[in-house]
Amino acid sequence: MDTKDLAERIAAGERRALARGITLVESGRADHRVQAAEVLAALPRDRQSLRIGLSGTPGVGKSTFIEAFGMMLVQAGLRVAVLAVDPSSARSGGSILGDKTRMDRLSREPAAFIRPSPSQTHLGGVARRTREAVALCEGAGFDVVLIETVGVGQSETVVAQMSDLFLLLLAPAGGDELQGVKRGIMEMADMILINKADGDLKPAATRTCADYTGALRLLRKRPQDPDGFPKAMMVSAMTGEGLDAAWADMQALMDWRKQAGFFAATRAAQARYWFEDDVRAGLLARLDRPTARAALGKLAAEVEAGTRSPSAAAQMFLTEHLDG
Fold first, then answer.
1. What are the helix (H) ranges across 120-242?
2. CA distance linking residue 99 with residue 114, whole number of Å
3. What is the Cα–Cα distance from 234 to 245, expressed in whole angstroms?
4. Among 156, 152, 95, CA closest to 120
């Protein structure tokens, strides 16, 4: 593979080249990992997209919201990329990858690109190589990159380490103030959007928005937030109501963070986080070598037989296979 040619075509905005590049970075083969690194290194470094992470429980309307929001951005003249992460089966390892079918209007837009990817049981709501896929979309010149997570619950916070804005989508009547002050995903959110604020659900959405607005006042103030943020807002992906106001608030928040120096500092901290994450992943990959697996099996049998304690066996394995 000519990685330089692939990088040039991605930088020129070729959709097929971008899809091929994402397939390359998602591969676990050693030669593909080398080629992926070459492609990423050859991309332009002067392009910055607005990276928006989006999370929420299953059924809250993430795909519907992304299509409505994405269509609004495209009609405003922006290029939008969507990276949708689908849950993988713990039994078969397969994924439906059906998010694209839910976004039929957006998928037909020339200025939009949608890529569903399997989570491969990776914790945190995103796929193992989603960060590199974001970098490819950024290199391809997209103005906004939307990262839709699996939607597994309150521990789904890894997406905040690869996005500039983290949106939490909630359904009406989803909880009271106590639910709103729970740690984890709630304190990572920059904006909480109460979706389905239309029809018979609008009164419930109004109450839920008021509950979370009150809850956000109880959370500790973060240095990267101006007055009024994080905030809760009502939106309707079906009617489009509230989307313009939400986008205006997102832009205002990002403008403030850039002027205050938080945007660059956050991206630098994220780069360090992913460097350390790659080192940890590399160390874990060394456990897959045949010699390491054989030693692991032998020590595990001794632990099962009770001839060696778990801590002593673990220390022996680490000393012999990771310290050297």
1. 130-139, 177-180, 185-188, 202-218
2. 9
3. 10
4. 95
